[in-house]
Write a structure and sequence with these properties.
This protein has 88 residues and is mainly alpha-helical. It contains 4 helices and 3 strands. It has helices at residues 9-16, 20-29, 45-56, 65-83, and strands spanning 6-7, 35-37, 40-44. A 3-stranded antiparallel β-sheet has the order 1-3-2. The longest helix has 19 residues, at 65-83.
């Protein structure tokens, strides 16, 4: 009998080269098929492979774009603060 191995969000983040929070958002949105055990998301190896296969067919930058979008938004806010002379 084969047992299913569940991956942690930190393992998935390292493999996809995105943040752990981004992995959580992907799980919560249903982009990655995941199970929730208490506060923890767990993903099977097969589900991660399926996500990676779908991600390969997206434009460059789509995997992990949530993190880059957060960085871009932060840069815009800091630029607006600098224009107004507000210190961060």
């Amino acid at each position: 009998m084969e047992t299913t191995r569940y991956l942690k969000t930190s393992e998935i983040a390292a493999r996809l080269r995105i943040s752990v929070n981004a992995v959580g958002r992907l799980c919560a949105s249903g982009a990655i098929e995941a199970s929730r055990f208490g506060n923890l998301w767990r993903v099977t190896e097969d589900a991660l492979r399926a996500y990676e296969a779908r991600a390969r067919h997206r434009p460059a930058g789509a995997v992990g774009s949530v993190h880059r979008r957060d960085e871009a938004a932060r840069a815009v806010v800091y630029a607006m603060m600098a224009e107004r002379g507000v210190r961060a």
